[in-house]
């Protein structure tokens, strides 16, 4: 590659403000003193063509059947390569369409074809990996990626660990040196970027459900950790208690006690108590809720060693939820170890709940996804909920989910919509089996309501669900992490 050609390209990019200095928040939340935004090249076709030429020249091998750009900036660059080199391209959507074919990848391909990945910038390598993972699932061979700028923050090592060879046109230090050499930046800016890179080189990528790579080193994924090992990994005392009792009682079953009288509730809790780790309630369904009911329920929770989980699904501003949680006729904070809350209102809801908890050992579970048909939770919403959980690990113990929304072993994923016999009800509920919930959807705790409460013998049914759920968990932790270079292939 002609050095002068690279230098000129860097200067051109500087001129069109594709490189900026200041304080920027990256996708991961990391603060950076510089930002490289190659999106601006779409307004400068000649520069974009040069970028494409440089990327093509950097490719590690000469034999590819396809090129695929990582959305969004990689797409037009890959399109230029495709045109110039007469090589077909693929587009991998960021989200599946909600209509039509629901395809994630557009374009023609056949299994075994070799595809070159094209990306503008890598930080951790996550965006490249996400795209590669999809293409590999379709049977394509993806081993190489060309990247215009490597921010030198661990991304190349992370990708190497998943079997992707990364070649970049430039590293950030080289780019900065070129700008400095041509008087575009001061030595202070150069030093601040060097300092930033040397102190921010720990990034990680998470693969869909198998593993996570931090600076190229494999970190154990939530789905492969035992409940026992997670007793000490979590920041939350109630999560520790729950992991402890799940592993000693050998159960990941939560019964949803959706009954209408206190008598039924207490009778059910006594019958299934030996088989569960949590009893989930909707106390507003009870016709005769009273303090006496709660006292008896607490005694049963002690007797059988399970926790109480009120599925209140708080969803208002902090000030309101604080009053709902810590007062009213149900005074939930007084007796429920865990409560559900929506992420929708933002952080304030957690602060509100915490203020009502007022130092008591309590926790909340954020509803990230729902089991019902037509649920509105988008990928962005789910990510927003997990981010919120990450910010409040001292109060949020996990998420209600229908998929593997987090590989962080600190979080407990609770999955409702579990039944052995039915596929759904007439009001939109959708069921999967305990095995599918644990193995395919990544559940740590399965939530079963009518599958047990409407069984002829709820205790016997609870035992079956407990055994199925726990066997699936044992199968999951036994699953070996695949050879990193084979991940996704
Ligand atoms: P079922 O009888 O197994 O369908 O009861 C499921 C329970 O879980 C019930 O209490 C619901 O309110 C609760 N639930 C759910 O079904 N789906 C969800 O996404 C959430 C909660 Br969040």
Could you walk me through the main structural features you see in this protein, from its secondary elements to its overall organization?
The chain is α/β, with parallel strands linked by helices and 489 residues long. It has 2 domains: 3-211, Rossmann fold (3-Layer(aba) Sandwich); 220-477, Aldolase class I (TIM Barrel), CATH 3.20.20.70. The protein is built from 18 helices and 19 strands. The strands form 4 sheets. It has an 8-stranded parallel barrel, surrounded by 7 helices. Strands 5-4-3-6-7-8 form a 6-stranded mixed sheet, sandwiched between helices. Helix 11 links the parallel strand 13 and strand 14 (307-314). The chain is elongated and about 80 Å long. Mean pLDDT is 91; it is low at 481-489. The structure holds 5-bromo-uridine-5'-monophosphate (5BU). 5-bromo-uridine-5'-monophosphate binds next to strand 19 and helix 17. 5-bromo-uridine-5'-monophosphate binds at residues 256, 258, 282, 311, 367, 370-372, 400, 416-417, 419, 429, 447-451.
Task: Map the helices and strands.
Elements: H1 3-15, E1 19-25, E2 31-36, H2 45-58, E3 66-69, H3 74-85, E4 89-92, E5 105-106, E6 114-122, H4 126-137, E7 141-150, H5 155-161, E8 165-171, H6 172-181, H7 187-199, E9 204-206, E10 212-214, E11 217-219, H8 227-233, H9 237-249, E12 253-256, H10 262-272, E13 278-281, H11 291-304, E14 307-314, H12 318-326, H13 332-335, E15 338-342, H14 348-357, E16 363-367, H15 379-391, E17 396-400, E18 412-415, H16 434-440, E19 445-448, H17 450-453, H18 458-478
Parallel strand pairs: 3-4, 3-6, 6-7, 7-8, 12-13, 12-19, 13-14, 14-15, 15-16, 16-17, 17-18, 18-19
Antiparallel strand pairs: 1-2, 4-5, 9-10, 10-11
Bound molecules: 5-bromo-uridine-5'-monophosphate (5BU).
Keywords: Decarboxylase, Glycosyltransferase, Lyase, Multifunctional enzyme, Pyrimidine biosynthesis, Transferase
Pathway: Pyrimidine metabolism; UMP biosynthesis via de novo pathway; UMP from orotate: step 2/2; Pyrimidine metabolism; UMP biosynthesis via de novo pathway; UMP from orotate: step 1/2
Binding site for substrate: 258, 280, 371, 429, 449-450
């Amino acid at each position: 590659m002609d050095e002068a050609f690279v230098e000129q390209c860097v200067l051109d990019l500087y001129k069109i403000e594709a490189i900026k200095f200041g304080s920027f928040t990256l996708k991961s939340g990391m603060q950076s003193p510089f930002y490289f935004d190659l999106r601006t090249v779409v307004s400068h076709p000649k520069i974009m063509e040069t970028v494409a030429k440089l990327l093509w020249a950097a490719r590690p091998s000469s034999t590819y059947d396809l090129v695929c750009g990582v959305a969004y900036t990689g797409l037009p660059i890959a399109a230029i390569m495709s045109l110039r080199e007469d090589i077909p391209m693929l587009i991998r959507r960021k989200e599946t369409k909600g209509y039509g074919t629901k395809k994630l990848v557009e374009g023609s391909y056949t299994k075994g074809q070799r595809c070159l990945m094209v990306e503008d910038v890598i930080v951790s390598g996550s965006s490249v990996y996400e795209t590669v993972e999809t293409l590999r699932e379709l049977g394509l061979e993806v081993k190489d990626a060309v990247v215009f700028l490597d921010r030198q923050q661990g991304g190349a090592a992370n990708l190497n660990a998943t079997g992707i060879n990364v070649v970049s046109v430039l590293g950030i230090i080289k780019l900065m040196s070129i700008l400095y050499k041509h008087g575009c930046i001061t030595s202070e800016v150069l030093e601040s970027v060097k300092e930033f890179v040397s102190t921010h080189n720990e990034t990680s990528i998470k693969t869909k459900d198998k593993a996570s790579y931090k600076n190229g080193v494999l970190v154990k994924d939530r789905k492969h950790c035992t409940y026992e090992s997670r007793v000490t990994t979590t920041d939350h005392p109630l999560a520790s208690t729950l992991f402890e009792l799940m592993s000693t009682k050998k159960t990941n079953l939560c019964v949803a006690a959706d009954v209408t009288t206190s008598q039924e509730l207490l009778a059910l809790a006594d019958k299934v108590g030996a088989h569960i780790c949590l009893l989930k309630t909707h106390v507003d369904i009870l016709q005769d809720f009273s303090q006496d009911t709660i006292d008896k329920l607490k005694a049963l929770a002690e007797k059988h060693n399970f926790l109480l989980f009120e599925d209140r699904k708080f969803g208002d501003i902090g000030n309101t939820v604080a009053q709902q949680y810590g007062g009213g006729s149900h005074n939930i904070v007084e007796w429920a170890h865990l409560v559900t809350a929506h992420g929708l209102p933002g952080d304030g809801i957690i602060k509100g709940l915490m203020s009502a908890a007022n130092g008591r050992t309590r926790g909340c579970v954020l509803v990230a996804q729902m089991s019902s048909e037509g649920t509105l939770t988008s990928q962005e919403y789910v990510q927003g909920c997990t981010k919120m959980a990450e910010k409040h690990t001292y109060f949020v113990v996990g998420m209600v989910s229908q998929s593997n929304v987090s590989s962080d072993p600190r979080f407990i994923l609770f999955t409702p919509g579990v039944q052995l016999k039915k596929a759904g009800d007439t009001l939109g509920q959708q069921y999967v089996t305990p095995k599918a919930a644990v193995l395919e959807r990544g559940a740590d705790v399965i939530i079963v309501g009518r599958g047990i409460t409407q069984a002829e013998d709820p205790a016997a049914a609870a035992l079956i669900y407990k055994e199925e759920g726990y066997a699936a968990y044992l199968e999951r932790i036994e699953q070996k992490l695949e050879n990193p270079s084979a991940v996704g292939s």
